[in-house]
Amino acid sequence: MKINYIACIMLVLTFSTVQAQDNYEKLTISIGVVVSDLETSLDFYTNIMGMEETGELDLDGSFGKVSGLTGGKPLLVKILKLKNSPDATELKLVSFGNEKTDMDNHIQDQNGMQYTTFFINSTENIIKRIRENNIKFLGDTPIQLPDGRNFILIQDPDGVFIEIIGH
User: Fold this and answer.
1) Which domains does the chain have, with CATH numbers?
2) Which pLDDT score, from 0 to 100, does residue 8 have?
3) C-alpha Rg value of the chain to the nearest Å
4) 41-45, 70-74, 130-134: range with lowest mean pLDDT
5) H-type alpha helices, the chain
6) Mean pLDDT value of segment 46-63
7) Tens of pLDDT, residues 146-162
8) DSSP letter at 163?
9) 23-32 long-range contacts, Cβ below 8 Å, gap at least 24?
10) pLDDT of 116-125, one tens digit each?
11) Which SUPFAM superfamilies does the annotation name (predicted)?
12) Burial class (CB in 10 A: 0-12, 13-18, 19+), 50
């Protein structure tokens, strides 16, 4: 009997990947963002981006220390979702009063999380909210993509780039 070693290796790799994927309890991830001003960022993500606050975590300094998150500082985490559903990705905002990030940059200027993409059905209302709140459109956006959808690029109050794609 001749064994096809390449087929065996591919089978093992496929099984390992499936096993790793089956290890996850949720099919979404929670993204934590440290912001300079919690209320300003909450206002942006709820009133401009249309997210809803779905909960919070009020963690004392001892948890911050033993978990390795803060070295001993307490933290109040505000949890936002596009829709209050267990299957929705969470955006977790927390502030330690750090200085605001330089807003005159591009995604290539820093490492780490630089942008978040929101896919929406209609861009009409969000464009209206962006303009009413004097938020700067970046580049020549809004622009139309080849597939007919609009592409909008703005920044949140701390300089995180926000891509908005929709009709």
Assistant:
1) 26-100 (3.10.180.10), 103-167 (3.10.180.10)
2) 54
3) 20
4) 70-74
5) 5-22, 38-43, 61-67, 124-132
6) 95
7) 999 999 999 999 999 99
8) E
9) 26/86, 26/87, 27/87, 28/87, 28/88, 28/89, 28/90, 29/89, 29/90, 30/79, 30/89, 30/90, 30/91, 30/92, 31/89, 31/90, 31/91, 31/92, 31/113, 31/116, 32/77, 32/92, 32/93, 32/94
10) 999 999 999 9
11) Glyoxalase/Bleomycin resistance protein/Dihydroxybiphenyl dioxygenase
12) middle
Residue whose pair of structure tokens reads 């209609």 in the numeric block = 122
The structure tokens listed for 110 are: 């820093």
What is the rounded (10 degree) CA torsion for 158, 107, 29, 93?
A: -10
Sheet with 143-144, strands from edge to edge, namely: 115-120, 161-166, 150-155, 143-144
